[in-house]
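Page 37, top half.
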Amino acid sequence: MAAQRRISPLRWVFFILLGVGMVVFCCYLAAGRGAAAAARAEGESIYKADVSKSNMPEPFIGGLILLTPEQMARVPMVDGFEWPCGTPEGGMMYDAQPFGSDNAKRGGKHSGQDLNGIGGENTDLGEPVYAAARGLVVYSGKPADGWGNVVVLAHRLPGEDSIIQTLYAHLESRDVSLGTIVHRGRRIGSIGTAGGHYLAHLHFEVIQSRCTEAGMPGYHPAGGMNRLNPADVIAHFPAPKHPDAYDAVRSLRIREAYLSRSQKNPSAPVSTPEGTIPVNPSQFITP
């Protein structure tokens, strides 16, 4: 019988090292593929451009809420803008802190106008605040102590597919509810002090946004952000001299609809609310 051939120890060492090398090489390839997949996922992520929370330029504000499609559909077309306190033409009040003015204490430029009664200090406390234009109430609340009561109206500009908002802050009272459509000149609240934080005045802003930005900073190092100069907007879209007839027309149409419902059953006695005015249906277009 032939003698069995033996493998030398050096060959065993070679085979062992070769096996270990192959295992290490396979692990390296797997790790590289995993890193590439992670990099691709990061590149495709919608969050790649996000900064860390500590580097956010401003803290999150609960009032920054995107308008719903229903709200945007209901925003009415304005017939013009007027001043929200004093006279519609801006009389009997003055601008204590104009739009864009520097305020080192607050750390930036003023994003609205501080409208005060001509008597100064708290002489205008409780004076009425009116809607600067026909609009939809998209915010009515108290976003923060420093803001006090705030009302925000959304408006559709004539001849443009554009929605802007007017913000009325530091109010003593709020006289409108969320979701209400108000006419130009409608009382929406009264001038306040934001719970004693300031002397009485109205902080008034015009905002180019489709979010309800109640509570966002009133000052910004870069300037007005998406704020517009209220005086420029009022000058560019001046209100007509006559009052806004929106509420009167709406009231008549509601009465007309009531009469129409009552007349569907001619045999039933027609009972109309006190003050009902019969209206020719052809006078108005049914929405």
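Page 37, bottom half:
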Amino acid sequence: MRSAIRHIGALSVAALLLTSCNDMYDGARIKPLERSNFFADGSSSRPLPEGTVARGHAVNNDLLSTGKLDGTLADAFPFAITDSVIARGQDRYTTFCTPCHGRLGDGNGMIVQRGFPRPNSFHTDSLRARPAGYFFDVMTNGFGRMYSYAASVPVHDRWAIVAYIRALQLSQRATVTMLPDNDKKQLP
């Protein structure tokens, strides 16, 4: 009799455990980015707290992370500009910037052809005179109708785009005298 009571007790405990596990498995849960009535904004995903930095992405270089030196927009780059940096900048510019600014940086991107307002050309005197940090700051924080690209374009890629913008600006005003001797020899 005691043995039967023990077996029944053990089976009862097992049944309770299995039932509670099943409730946890089938219980209410919210998928990422699913609509939720719990929060006032209707989103189940919460925004990251201010200042959150992904593991391994901490930046302790003000020029690199803000485009500023001592709180002023800098005309310096935080790393050496090489051919590979320019090539990366061209690739990222083509992906993120040409829809609005166009391939030449003249503000004649596809959105203009679709009826949207034309962005400024990078070839105006005022934008050529801006420091490199200005372009980085605009990409990071947005400006006017342009929204921030900080979440879409990593810091080093934003700087590569700035380098490519500078190359575009130079390309529209370059003279033969500015060419290296090897390139001058190739001209007809």
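Margin note: The first helix runs from residue 2 to 26.
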